[in-house]
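Bench notes, bay 3.
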Amino acid sequence: MTYSPPWYLFNKHLETIYPALFRKVNNGSNASERLPTKDKDFIDLDFYNVRSKKTVILSHGLEGNSKKPYMIGMINIFLNAGFNCVAWNFRGCSGNLNRHPYSYHSGATQDLEYIIEKTKYKFPLSKIYLIGFSLGGNLTLKYLGENSSNPRIEKAIAVSVPLDLHQSCLEISKKSNWIYTRKFLKTLKRKISEKALLFPGEINVSGIKEITNLMEFDDRYTAPLHGFKNAMDYYTQCSSINFLEKISVPTLIINARNDPFLSQECYPENINTGFIKYDYPPFGGHLGFKMSGYKNKYYHEIKSLEFLSK
């Protein structure tokens, strides 16, 4: 399938921003649940049950949630194709702060493992597929690499995934990408400031206004709160590019060449091609992929359905 964006989305930023702001998708019938975790926290998620023997688990991106247009768009196309869907919210992303100083990060695969266990319990006869977007894509690929000796997943897809977290962090911190950095830092700073009120002895927000990029935030908050030495230690341990060779289930990675979030390291060609298929269209932006000539069809959704349906 040849892909090209509409004429009015003539650069990577418009391709990225337009679907996020203006895409209209209807949320199908779902049952929202709050699952208690072993560490006395909780995870909120949405189950879409069409009584199928095929179930897709969807993981959103940084500061996203289960109701984002890119999530609902993918859910709708799979519901219409006869798949159950499970859309989960990372800790603190459902609109409610979680109960610990820590929350979520790019490598927190224990929470994805928990969601997979609960999905298998809810749909015991169902085959399980994974789809991850951006940060959720990195999480998905890392999980697959960590569990290569005991594959429990039929197939997986990662879309707009920052395979190299450090280099992608440097990329998104460029001046030309200021709008994205400001957006992410706004919600990240707000959440950590709210957490500081609950855990004043563990979180110090003095000087937080001076943080101007994501690496600074990760170095001061994300890394230490989740047991890493610093941001570089976090990026090194959690970058999914370091786990690709161990993946042992059919996997599709879709990264647009003009994605403003991704560095050149995020476009490998020859790592584990026995299981991984790479799709790098020249256009699409970050989680964009709106198709020319169609009102509400998106390239990555069509390709994902084709890949999981084979």
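Next record in the batch:
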Amino acid sequence: MFSHAPHPPAVSFSAVQPGLKLADQVAQQLEARIRSGELQPGQKLPTEAELVQQLEVSRTVVREAISRLKSRHLVESRQGSGMYVKAAGIEPLDFGLSAAGKNAVIQIAEVRRALEAEVAELAAGRRSEQDMQRIRQAEDTLAEAVRQGRDGVEEDMAFHRAIAQASGNPFLISTLDYMSQFLRSAMRITRANEARRDDFAQAVEQEHHGIVMAIEAGDPLAARQAAARHMGNAIARIQQADASFWAQDGERLARDILAAKP
């Protein structure tokens, strides 16, 4: 007898918020679940009725969002069955990461520096009080993770994504979601290195807080500079990592960057 494969866990969505066009927000939520792997290739999407109920929008909004995902080749309809995540989506970008190690980590950090600076600048000019609450909560959650001795990778990712949400640009958010596997792998290395030295760990916390303060102050230039400085310092900290770090942890973790290629 052949056993059936277990059904994937149910995926839930949160109600959309005022601001961006509703269809953009719905498409953004769905695409983020696909890019992160929470919705797997071949997996059936929730029904239209379920999405309407969970997202608290109209059927028209859901249909428009699904249409956008279909145009991006992320989902496909199967007659009489429903909507499914496509087995082959957008062709992956070639980041040219030819080898694991320090150079690969620095290359990812350079990409992050450009993106995070732009995201922070936009967030400072567009953030709402609700955005600020999410950003402050993410900052506090990250600090608590560090106090408890965890690596803080997921919390760090959530912190930067909260800022991206405040930018109000769904394409920037989608770009970060698309790169999330690379960013997560690189962040494991930078945070592992920073955890080895108290001065590094303190500097990271201060840099994060500087970004938050600039966004809260509504100062786009200061926010851009703070975010760029944070990533520039992350590169410098990797460059300062001693040989023992790479021998023990760095090289092994860096190989995950290549393994994470979508």
